[in-house]
Specification:
This protein is of the alpha+beta class. Helices cover 20% and strands 44% of the residues.
Length: 209
């Protein structure tokens, strides 16, 4: 009887493993599904850019609909940018100045362009699972030979959370420059992406509209 129970348990475990096993395409399709919440609920992330000799620079991005806020630190200079799709605001902390401009229509920000590497990554790429932990899947996405889009990077490193199916990080390297997007989170309030002049009562306003 004991041997029979052990055999049955082994069969059940193998069956369960086969049921719950997921291909890279299925995991990334689920990631795309979870990412669709970004449009309605907004999202935040950190964008890092590593440049030869100059080091690594990071920008915190908050996005909700047509609005976004970006907090950037480059060497000793700190800047905050807001946009609502109609007007852009840029705060220069070193000068304590806020420059106001008309937003350029239909022009993507650098953050939006870089975030585009996450859109349907299985299209145009051969995806391979290189590592798996109890918290995440690690993928190496190599540009397919049939992908003739010159703007697509040759390879993408992608890490997906097992808990949320959201991307933990993604990075690309082109011409010595490494761009990493990380710390994705769903949910941004309108207040977080809206410029409020009351927060900078002593700043000089330069209106260039």
């Amino acid at each position: 009887m004991k041997k029979i129970l052990i055999s049955l348990l082994s069969v059940l475990l193998l069956t369960a493993a086969s049921v719950w096993a997921q291909t890279p395409q299925e995991i990334i399709a689920r990631m795309d599904q979870e990412k669709s919440r970004f449009d309605k609920e907004g999202f935040s992330m950190v964008m890092e850019m590593k440049l030869p000799l100059l080091g690594t620079f990071s920008t915190k991005v908050f996005s909700l609909g047509d609005k976004y806020k970006m907090l950037a630190t480059i060497k000793d200079k700190q800047a905050v940018n807001w946009s609502d799709g109609v007007t852009d605001w840029e705060y220069d902390a070193s000068k304590n100045e806020i420059t106001v401009k008309n937003a350029k229509p239909h022009e993507k920000t650098q953050a939006e362009d870089n975030a585009g590497v996450l859109d349907s990554v299985t299209e145009g790429y051969d995806v391979k699972l290189t590592k798996e932990t109890d918290k995440a899947w690690y993928f190496y996405c190599k540009k397919s030979k049939t992908n003739k889009n010159k703007d697509d990077p040759k390879a993408i490193d992608l890490v997906v959370s097992k808990a949320t199916y959201l991307p933990i990080s993604t990075s690309v390297k082109e011409k010595g420059i490494t761009i990493t997007l990380r710390d994705f989170s769903v949910g941004v309030s309108d207040e977080e992406v809206t410029f409020n002049p009351a927060d900078y009562p002593d700043a000089k306003i330069i209106d260039q509209r």
